[in-house]
Amino acid sequence: TIFEPFVQASRRPQQGSGSVGLGLSISRELVRSMGGELKVESEPGIGSRFYFSLPLFPALSAERKAETEDGGELGTGREIWVAEDNAMNRLVIEKMLEELGYSCELFSNGMELLQALNSTERLPAALLIDGLMPELDGFEAAGRIQSLKKEISSIPRILITADTTLLSSEERIGEGLFHDTLLKPVDLEELRFVLTRFLSRKPD
């Protein structure tokens, strides 16, 4: 469809090898991450009209906004680490976390995540880990994290997967590799619910 990524070959050699058509695809994912939908209406010989709908909520009062920034009901203000090999998925999850009041650090595979956990003095509040990644996938990474010192192994680990068979897998999830699971494409309200469940208390 028109919203799918594509590559456009250049007809003029001096213009280079072409361009990547990601604008509409990224726009659609960003709108979806906020609970909306991007649509298009076209008429031959006239043109196209792109529009989107978004659920809107009343603006936060100054008191509620401060509560959110301090780690209250609407978000913790704490840092979430995300390990995901797909660049667009990382972008979408980053925007969703920002929408919920979190900051985030992004990694493209499990090895990068492990190295960061072993070298940082500022640990994250939670980990969002994709199941399938190059170099070190999410399951191997979670297993290694589980064997690290308690302050690291106790960080909530949330599996991100498109494989619905893993949602009830006792072998991989029930034995403690992950504390919860999010199904792709990640839904903003599901993400809010899962993070709130683990991070409802303000940091000490």
Sum this structure up briefly.
By secondary structure, the chain is of the alpha/beta class.
Describe the structure.
This protein is of the alpha/beta class and 204 residues long. It is built from 7 helices and 9 strands; from the N terminus they run E-E-H-E-E-H-E-H-E-H-E-H-H-E-E-H. It folds into 2 domains: 6-53, no CATH class; 62-199, 3-Layer(aba) Sandwich (Rossmann fold). Strands 6-5-7-8-9 form a 5-stranded parallel β-sheet. It has a two-stranded antiparallel sheet with strand order 1-2.
Which tags fit this structure?
204 residues; alpha/beta; Rossmann fold; 2 domains; 5-stranded parallel sheet; 9 strands
